[in-house]
């Protein structure tokens, strides 16, 4: 091969590798990291069934604990409901001002809830805020029915989106994450972390809402955030820059939490699944996030 042609080939190869590396997105890096199993860059034994800590900019997994076993995921499922709703808003298939009818099925959803009467309609934005901040199950069911016509049809949309996003170990049967005789939503800690990454990447405005200690609906009802880490009166659980994201609890799932915080230009995403009580899911999140940011600081110094 002539020297000039060889040089051109080498240049093309370097450019191609750079382009390929750029297009290996964060989510692909996260999936590739699965082969590493319980990777632990950090020294942090988490008091929970499963956990993961992710650098959302690089895809580096800083900590993983049983991160690839699917478990009941409880209300962290609502991140998928939020994703599908925000996509529908973005695509102008629905608007925040839409009046959403509440069925008997939606109004009767158990667990966390807001005041919704069957047969009445409520602004879609109210239902979204009640779900994202207060984890309201009746609001989530109403949203799912509005977007897809029924809970089974919405669950199908959730599963299709999970497949599209590469969440290969996730399965959904409803919009809420509640456990029923007919089944329950299940995800791995890695898939939960990836879903959180996609949600924040595609709809960054979500953290402006989930960072709020409470919201007031147009009905006048005040909804308190189920995430105690953003409550101003509980500094023992606070982490600098924490602005989300989603709690979860059922008897089968245990206490769960997907947390996220941004310090400077660095955002971390943590997932804790199956903690024994409400406090532990937050204290373990605090431990993961703070050690993750400490690691970043040490790397910059080194």
UniProtKB/TrEMBL annotation:
Keywords assigned:
Carboxypeptidase, Cell shape, Cell wall biogenesis/degradation, Hydrolase, Peptidoglycan synthesis, Protease, Signal
Sorted alphabetically, which InterPro entries does this protein's record hold? Beta-lactam/transpept-like (IPR012338), Peptidase_S11 (IPR018044), Peptidase_S11_N (IPR001967)
Q: Active-site residues?
A: 75, 78, 135
What GO annotations for molecular function exist for this entry?
serine-type D-Ala-D-Ala carboxypeptidase activity
Note the superkingdom of the native organism: Bacteria
Q: Which Pfam families match?
A: Peptidase_S11
Which GO BP terms, alphabetically? cell wall organization; peptidoglycan biosynthetic process; proteolysis; regulation of cell shape
Provide the residue positions that the database annotates as binding substrate: 246
What organism is the protein native to? Brevibacillus parabrevis
Q: Which family does it belong to?
A: Belongs to the peptidase S11 family.
- Tell me which Gene3D superfamilies the record gives: DD-peptidase/beta-lactamase superfamily
Taxonomic lineage of the native organism:
Bacteria, Bacillati, Bacillota, Bacilli, Bacillales
| All residue ranges annotated as the Peptidase S11 D-alanyl-D-alanine carboxypeptidase A N-terminal domain in the record | 44-276
- Record-given protein name: D-alanyl-D-alanine carboxypeptidase
Where does the UniProt annotation place the signal sequence?
none
The coding gene here is dacA
């Amino acid at each position: 091969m002539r020297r000039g042609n060889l040089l051109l080939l080498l240049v093309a190869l370097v450019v191609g590798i750079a382009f390929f590396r750029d297009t290996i997105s964060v989510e692909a890096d996260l999936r590739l990291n699965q082969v590493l199993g319980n990777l632990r860059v950090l020294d942090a034994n988490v008091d929970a069934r499963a956990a993961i800590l992710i650098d959302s900019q690089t895809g580096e997994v800083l900590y993983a604990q049983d991160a690839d076993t699917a478990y009941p995921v409880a209300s962290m499922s609502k991140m998928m409901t939020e994703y599908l709703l925000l996509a529908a808003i973005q695509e102008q298939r629905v608007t925040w001002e839409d009046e959403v009818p509440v069925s008997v099925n939606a109004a009767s959803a158990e667990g966390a809830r807001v005041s919704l009467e069957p047969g009445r309609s409520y602004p879609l934005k109210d239902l979204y805020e009640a779900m994202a901040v207060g984890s309201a199950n009746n609001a989530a069911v109403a949203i799912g029915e509005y977007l897809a016509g029924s809970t089974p049809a919405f669950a199908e949309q959730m599963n299709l989106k999970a497949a599209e996003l590469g969440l290969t170990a996730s399965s959904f049967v409803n919009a809420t994450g509640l456990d029923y005789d007919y089944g329950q939503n299940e995800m791995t800690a890695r898939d939960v972390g990836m879903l959180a990454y996609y949600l924040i990447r595609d709809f960054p405005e979500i953290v402006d809402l989930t960072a709020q200690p409470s919201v007031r609906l147009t009905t006048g009802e005040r909804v308190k955030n189920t995430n105690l880490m953003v409550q101003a009166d509980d500094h023992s659980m606070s982490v600098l820059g924490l602005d989300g994201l989603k709690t979860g609890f059922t008897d089968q799932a245990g206490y769960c939490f997907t947390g996220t915080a941004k310090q400077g230009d660095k955002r971390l995403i943590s997932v804790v699944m199956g903690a024994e009580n409400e406090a532990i899911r937050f204290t373990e999140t605090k431990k993961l996030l703070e050690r993750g940011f400490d690691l970043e600081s040490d790397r910059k110094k080194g």
